[in-house]
Amino acid sequence: MANTRAKTKAKAKPKPKPKPKPKAKPKAKIVPLNIGGGKLPLAPYSCEVQRSKRKTLALYIKPEKVIVKVPYQASRSEVEEFVQSNEDWIHNRLHEESQRQQEMLRIESGGKIFYRARELTIAFKEGRKRRILVNGDQFIIQGHKLTPAKAQEQVEDFLIDKASQYILPRARGLAHHLGVEHKITEIKLRKTKSKWGHCTSAGVLQYNWLIMLAPYSIIDYMITHEVCHLIHMDHSKRFWQLVDSICPQSEQYIHWLKEHEHRFWF
Ligand SMILES: [Zn+2]
Fold it and tell me: Is 64 left (phi over 0), alpha (psi -120 to 50) or beta?
């Protein structure tokens, strides 16, 4: 499954009815926009216009920055109208983006970790034995002379270990149940930048072990998704019917992942 982490890129649907537009804008490529009267607590953002051979106009959101990709021939007023008619969308997305930035996982004492759909506080604990335990609202990382770097390594080991205990037997078990276990050549656990899982035509299943931070229902959905690709190598209707026959809530889980996955990457 391709990663759905679309937080830095989003396409706006142009609205048909533009608002009246002010005239006379700076000549430079970077057009600072007045967001006066905005409802959301945002720092002013700048809007960068990028021209290329494309045919349509599209908006992309970066932290505190809006990029408008436009065709070479688009007029200045066309671009302005497009941005203005999408102003509400821009505000909302910038707000979402700044919230997501704040929610990013930082492994440090006192930091927050979103584990099994609960926000826990990270606590470092001195001890010879390396271990991780959850106690109430605390995610305790125990180790000797812990630093954030060492703690991060420990969390990685913890998740890889959990992934090999949980994902490997379940993926094989499900493939066996579906009669396609023989198609599996390898199951890899990798932290990849852009994907939760992957399945090749050669029968290599790959899972991102960061998924072990998610609730088990989400992990099971990911396992199911990739194993079903052993039968249908596409995202056709037949594929989704098969997924739904095993994991009927898949749509809900995909939605949950879209909402929360930015909190898992570190
Ligand atoms: Zn897929």
Answer: left
Q: How far is the CA of 203 from the centre of ligand 1 (A)?
A: 13
Dist. CA 221 → ligand 1 center (Å):
11
Query: What pLDDT digit, counting tens, does each position of 34-89 carry?
Result: 433 333 334 456 788 899 999 999 999 887 788 899 999 998 888 888 888 888 89
Q: How far is the CA of 113 from the centre of ligand 1 (A)?
A: 27
117 CA from centroid of ligand 1 (Å): 23
Tokens coding 126: 């001195």
Distance between Cα 234 and ligand 1 center (Å): 7
Task: State the amino acid at position 145 in one-letter form.
Answer: K
The single residue listed with the structure tokens 């945002």 is 42
C-alpha closest to that of 105 among 121, 94, 126: 121
Bridge pairing between strands 46-52 and 65-71: parallel
Q: Mind listing the pLDDT tens digit for each residue in 145-155?
A: 999 999 999 99
Instruction: Report how far ligand 1's centroid is from the alpha carbon of 233 (Å).
Output: 8
- Residue 200 tokens read as 């090749």
For residues 96 and 7, is the Cβ–Cβ distance under 8 A?
yes
